[in-house]
Amino acid sequence: MYSQRLNKIRTYLLQFIYLATAVSVGFQAWREILMPEGTWDPIYGVTYSVWAAYALLMLLGIRYPYKLLPLMVLQFLYKLIWVVGVYYPLYTSGKPAGEELFLSWRVAILVELIVIPWGHFYTSYIKGFLKKSAIKAQASG
Q: What's the predicted TM-score (pTM) here?
């Protein structure tokens, strides 16, 4: 009974994160795409195109929160990589930049770390991949 209630709460939290991401990222990306200010550098255009597509896929996560866990893990990982690979070196060199982003992402990373069902992710995506890789290695070796 307790685990069912916990799973239901986790599902609602996942759906909320999918929705919040779709709205926040989608609003910014689609606003830039639909009302650009001048011409874009190709990389800038690719960036906003990826974010717009990402926001649309996050909408699917509301309906299928566990099937689209790789999107949630991608979100967790890119934030974590940014904090470690971009923010931290700037901070330690005495050139802090992105403070507001760091503060909001610090909370988001913690929430995602707690909400993502890591056991389910491992079982559904990693374990099967590792098993198939081991079978391929045995067959070819």
A: 0.82
